[in-house]
Amino acid sequence: MLKILGRVSSINVRKVLWTCAELELPFEREDWGAGFRSPQEPAFLALNPNAQIPVLVDGDFTLWESNSICRYLAAQYGAGRLLPQEPQARARVEQWMDWQATDLNTSWRVPFMALVRGQPTAPEALQAGVASWNRQMAILDAQLARSGAFVLGAEFTLADVVLGVSALRWQRAPMAHAELPAVQAYLARLAQRPAFVAQGDQGQA
């Protein structure tokens, strides 16, 4: 039985839970993180010295970093589902996963922490952050307009797991949103997936 350590209010934990749901993998989850057991506890640090959630425990194998966990689950248990085995097709999926973890995540940190978490932020920094977030999301919108149903075309992949939760965070942030019709249509399609409803959308920003 897979074990996932982390609270469901974490966007990174939800990536892993959604991946498990898409692959129909049974798992147990333990609450760790803000409001629950502290990742600074020695038992957790022995699994992840960064004191960050999520952590996956699969028998005697332990893994941290949410996108790496999603890749592992798809490669180990997916038999080609979610993560293609052909090198170029797989590279395209991983390209968008890496973009999510770097450029897109960097763009939302200031506005999310200010508008959702209430962190004091200078107005000009907030304005710049919102513009940056909208600008990065416009890149996703253009890709979806080209690709059709999902990030890389007709087939749902891991890129949609990590970008789906990110797009939902953008949509629910209390700020001025750019007009991105392809992103909005994409989120409506994701809402038709039972695994997204069960694990990807936990009502959290």
Automatic annotation (TrEMBL):
Q: Which family does it belong to?
A: Belongs to the GST superfamily.
Q: Which organism is it from?
A: Inhella proteolytica
What sections of the sequence does the record tag as coiled-coil? none
Q: What are the protein's UniProt keywords?
A: Transferase
Give an example GO molecular function. transferase activity
Q: Know the name of this protein?
A: Glutathione S-transferase family protein
Transferase is among the record's keywords: yes
Highest taxon in the source lineage: Bacteria
Q: Which residue ranges does the record assign to the GST C-terminal domain?
A: 86-205
- Where the record annotates domain GST N-terminal, the positions are 1-81
Concerning Pfam families, the annotation shows: GST_C_2, GST_N
Q: Which PROSITE patterns match?
A: GST_CTER, GST_NTER
